[in-house]
Fold uroporphyrinogen-III C-methyltransferase.
Amino acid sequence: MSAKVWLVGAGPGDPELLTLKAVRALREADVVLIDDLVNEAVLEHCPAARIIAVGKRGGCRSTPQAFIHRLMLRYARNGKCVVRLKGGDPCIFGRGGEEAQWLRERGVDVELVNGITAGLAGATQCAIPLTLRGVARGVTLVTAHTQDDSSLNWQALAQSGTTLVIYMGVAKLSEIREQLLAGGMAINTPVAMIENASLPHQRECRSVLTNMEDDAYSFALKSPAILVIGAVAACKTSSLWEHGLPAMGSEHTA
Ligand code: SAH
């Protein structure tokens, strides 16, 4: 049997947002390496597996990436069923691409399993349609935090006409605001800041571009949070109805 690693997305936090395939992988796992954004409640699907926490949140004590790579390789070569479990989707700001490549170069089979990424989950949980006919023709996922401090093309983002979903932005609110304003985005562009999306302690703070930093401060916004910037960020359950979307159930008529 050839060595194999599953790179699995655990979704944004709510255990009911796990995919059936992720549950199957967890049930088969001998070893599960988990990131710290994974809700440990999902581990109920792998009660017998060995759980290894390899989280590495910005600013905290971290597990070096090379160590994680070697750990996966060692267990896989020993014939263990290895699941690398990541918050959200493994391939959205999750190093899924680089881990898969590293393992494949060493002859390990890799199976990638989608998870619901935090940006999409957070928006939907707050009744924000990231795309909306006549309002937002697309959505752009970006990270505000780059390892090499390389800069995004903020002007292009400001003028893209797409909804922006920004990951890892809590410590960069001032820069995001300034760059988007400098790039020509309107001061009253709606903003939603969503903390702990899909978890029982989810919180949302609605604002507009020019006030987002002050409002986040008053709200004591903390990581993990995503920012949704664009006209659709003004939508709430009731305004969806006002936009004249087809009724999908009584909850949309609130
Ligand atoms: N692979 C993950 C993203 C990892 S990067 C995914 O697809 O969701 C880490 C960032 O994701 C955090 O800084 C935050 O911006 C976002 N994030 C992860 N989980 C979140 C949650 N439950 N609520 C809000 N943001 C979250």
